[in-house]
Every structure is written in structure tokens, then in C-alpha cells.
Amino acid sequence: MEFKDNEPIYVQIAALVCEKIIIGQWPTGQRILSVRDLGVELEVNPNTVMRAYDFLQTLGVLYNKRGVGLFVADDAVEKVKAHRKQEFVAQYMPDFFKQLYLLDIPMEEIVSQYEAFKKEQGIDKN
């Protein structure tokens, strides 16, 4: 994994774990990689992974079975999506709307491009 300089590594690791959960690579109820194993896989200090896991436990995405390990919560997908949506709206939408306004881009064009993107990605549900 290539880390960005503008965001703490533990936050990027948490985002990676969330992505694995959303796409089903780490399904609900499954035991996840240990702190040490994920640290080795990502070539980071295990303390950094622990910080990411602690953050995800705080959100209720992961839970600990004492002596067994960490597991993906039953409602993890919903919690991850809700958290990421909240972050996205707060972090990116204000500038996005500002650019739409400054460049005079109509919402219809955005909708059209979004629909084309979904079709191109094979995720068009219509």
C-alpha cells in the first residue's frame, strides 16, 4: 500500500479495512488479520495498525472477542458507509458545490456524467 503524506497512516489503514468490509473481502462475523499480520503485510509498525483497529472499534465496525481476536461487526457495512458518507459530505461537498457554482455546471450534467460512470463501471442498477 502506498501511503499519502497528507493523512495519518492509521486513518489510511482504517479506510483500507473499511473498503475490504464494504466489498465483502472481510465479511461480517469474520475474524480479521491480527495487528502483527496486517502490520507485516502493509510494512508498518503494529502500533499504527492497532491505532486503526482501535478507531474502528470505537465506530462499532470491529469488535473484540477476548483471547480470540477482532471480528467484523454484523452491521459493519452500514456503519462504514454512514461514517464515510458523513466524512465525504463534510470534507468534499462544500468545494464541489463551489466549483459547480463558479464554473456554472448544471446539476443535470453532473447527474448525466454520474449515470455514465455507473454504466461504465457495470454498477448501473437500472
UniProtKB/TrEMBL annotation:
PANTHER family: GNTR-FAMILY TRANSCRIPTIONAL REGULATOR (PTHR38445:SF10), HTH-TYPE TRANSCRIPTIONAL REPRESSOR YTRA (PTHR38445). CDD domains: WHTH_GntR. This is GntR family transcriptional regulator. The keyword DNA-binding applies. Signal peptide: none annotated. Residues 7-75 form the HTH gntR-type domain. Keywords: DNA-binding, Transcription, Transcription regulation. Gene3D superfamilies: 1.10.287.100, Winged helix-like DNA-binding domain superfamily/Winged helix DNA-binding domain (1.10.10.10).
